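In this supplementary section we document a worked example of the pipeline. Step one takes a protein sequence of length 423 as its only input; no multiple sequence alignment statistics are reported here. Step two produces a three-dimensional model, which step three serialises into structure tokens for compact storage. The input and output of this example are shown verbatim.
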Amino acid sequence: MFIPQLRGLRPLGNPDQSLMSARTRKDYGIEDGFTGESLYDSLRRHLLGTHAQRLRVAAFEQFLGRTFFSGSDITIIPRHDADVVNVRIGSDPECNIYDLGDGVQHCIVLFAPLYFGDFDKTGLALFVEEPDLFLHPGYQRLWVRAILEWNDYPLQVFATTHSNHLLERASEGSDLSVFRVGKGAREAVECRQVSGRDRALLDYVGARNTSVFLSNCTIWVEGPTDRAYFRAYLSRVMTLSETDTWREDLHYSFVEYGGANIAHMFKSLDDGGYDPESFAGRCMVIVDKDDENSKTDRKQFLRDRLEDRFVILPTREVENLLTPHVVEGVARAYERNDDVRISTVSTRKWRMTPMGSLINTHLEGRKRKTYATSSGTLTDKMKFCERAVEVIRSGEFELVVSKDADAVARQILGFIRDTNGAP
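The serialised model returned by step three reads:
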């Protein structure tokens, strides 16, 4: 199934002509495409069809409400006296689809083929041109998340994009791959896999640092693994409440500050620094407890500047927030042995010993030569993080979210609530 960039829910000219579909067939020679023009007829056909077809419409409406509209009831109506669908969201008045904005229309277009497409539902390869068109960063992330969480039938998605927000999301999970496509020296098409965090790739698409500062508040963390861990913990804590439906890159964003740079950022302009809150909204800063003595002045400065929005972890590093259950799960993947386990460790030692050294010392059944660098930190922090996040997202809450991690996640959630207004 192909979704071209020429798409929308408003027919051009006579509704029977399907001009966008005709143009796509002429340009690309692709017959099996979806531009959105046929949605009106598809909805009418399904609503007037079998019970199973009507259930597909209901499932699509529930999916849209759950994914994009904070659980609100969504009703999509192909009115008999119109050529466009009408939509009702929650208790709002029913209105024409074009009165809701292009973003909502394109969310519908991107997922309608998954429910109404003419295929046997045993599996689908979906090709999408520029899925980010008309979608703000929050909706772009929701699109990726919805694709990754899709479980109705096997689905593989190929998308072309210039969006740095999608590239950033692709760098955080093992289920996504990024390829840069261009002409090689011999005029042949070159396709090579790259990292979503490749600075050259972001420069290629013209991304700038300021493009991420679009949300209502920011949580500043030291590096990419900190961001991945806190994102996972926050997600688990938010699932405990039906009212916490905050969206990343809309209500809040995570920003990496890169170690000791953070104190300089918050210095006054007169002292040669600058104020991140002037361009990044209200800030919370989270720092490790490592090297306490050497960083006392910096931490006191930040505490004075940010007050309760400055959070010092109760652990040496973010990895020390992990539970033994999570560490065991990751170690089993490395060792390819389900019988390895972490021996008993005191709470203080677990909190303050570098994680690589902890695993080397307390992983029973270890075959891998070492998990630690010379300083004791993990040798493979990013890959370890990716595997740990998978366990955190799928495991039983009490086993994968430590009390320390839960407390920090709730501090972050409280900050997001205070900034955006508690639901």
